[in-house]
Amino acid sequence: MRDKTLRRRIDYLRSHFSLFLVGSLYHTNIGLRKVVVFAESKPGYEDFLYQCMKSNDYWLYMSQCVGSPKCLAIYGIPAGRERDFEGFLAKLEELDHIKSVKFSWSTCFQNVNATTEWFDDTTEQWVFPWDSWVEEVLTSKEDLPYTLKDPAAYLQMADWIDIMILKELERNSAVKLKEIARKLGISLQRLKYHFENHVLKEQMFEGHQIIADHFKGLCADTCYFKFAFKNYQNFAKFAHSLLNKPFVRVTGKVYGNNQLFVQVYLPRQQIRNFIQALSKLIRNGFLDTYEYVIQDVAKTERDTIPYQFFKNNQWEYDNQRFLEKLQFTVKQFTGTA
User: Fold this and answer.
1) What is the rounded distance in angstroms from the CA atom of residue 337 to the CA atom of residue 327?
2) How far apart are CA 306 and CA 296, in angstroms?
3) The domain that contains 223 carries what CATH number?
């Protein structure tokens, strides 16, 4: 009964507000390494760049950006095929009209769902105590979730049914298990076994990501930041301070470095205040540097794990296929190979 009531409430919120429920995967335990790519095209070739970056079917997230660079992309590449992917990026950068391609391998990401932190119940308005946040950062704990720690290994622990479950959860984390079982043509009992003993037990599924426009009406922008720190302690304190903040949607650690990716969602007038708070952290030596782009949410897409390439319980990565697809995209846009 409680589950049905919760579902009714979720359905109501989704129908009346900008609310999306998607599943967040721990790609590390299904053998995929995340990599964040920033690419720059010459003016007038933004769409060309966007489509070229989609030529590699292992993309998970793609967004055009306002200003420079022009495109942000996140891929999940099978462990062991990193050099092939880097070769794909090198070919991309060699193309006419492409100015630069930069990438960073990362850990999995930690989602930060909207909370009531910084919401004043009395006035029913959001407040933004940036000075207090700066003090919090300096004295914060260094405890971080496993998603923000460099993994010792990338283990492929899934079978075909597990991957299909994860794919469906990514699309809608509120989906009923019986609906997934019906799509796969297997019994509910068998699907529950995989869900409980593989997907959950082996930590393939991180949880629900709630995407809500809680600053709607305040002219909010979505920005993607990359922060760099002089040491791990500062990195960990900063990252920990963000885990319950309403202006953070996603965080991810750059693999092997004290650097952090953060997707920030803020009213436009508060972005300047956020930048000023960051300036204070730089002046006192806590934060080394940062860079960011403003995302065009109207030109942003997300995709599920590339389940179509999961065969015989392993990922098939056809690098030649992606290079040929890249050449075809170039020909379609420019008329040259």
Assistant:
1) 6
2) 24
3) 3.30.70.920
Task: Classify each residue of 97-136 as buried b or exposed e, where b means 16 or more C-beta atoms within 10 Å of its C-beta.
Answer: bbeebeebbbbbbbbbbbeeebeeeeeeebebeeeebbee
Total structural domains in the chain? 1
Query: Given the structure tokens 């959950």, which residue do they identify?
Result: 200
Tokens 């009992």 identify what position?
189
Cβ atoms within 10 A of the Cβ of 231, count? 10
Domain membership flag for residue 269: yes
Q: How far apart are the first and last CA of the chain?
A: 60
CA distance 188 to 3: 18
Sign of the CA dihedral 109, 160, 153, 203?
positive
Token look-up 């006035």 returns 123
Dihedral angle sign, alpha carbons of residues 11, 13, 18, 20: negative
Task: Kindly give, in sequence order, each residue whose CB lies less than 8 Å from that of residue 106, ignoring residues fewer than 6 positions away.
Answer: 34, 35, 36, 252, 253, 254, 255, 261
Confidence of residue 336 (pLDDT cuts 50, 70, 90): low
97-144 pLDDT per residue, tens:
999 999 999 999 999 987 888 998 899 899 999 999 999 999 999 999
Q: Flag whether 135 is in a domain.
A: yes
How do residues 259-318 score in pLDDT, each as one tens digit?
Answer: 999 999 999 999 999 999 999 999 999 999 999 999 999 999 999 999 999 999 999 999
Structure tokens, 285: 């030596």
Phi, psi angle pair for 275, to nearest 5°:
-60, -40
Domain-embedded: residue 289: yes
Residue 98 resides in a domain: no
DSSP string across 236-266: HHHHHHTTT-TTEEEEEEETTSSEEEEEEEE
Domain span at residue 253 reads 115-150+215-298
Size of the chain, expressed as the number of residues it contains = 337
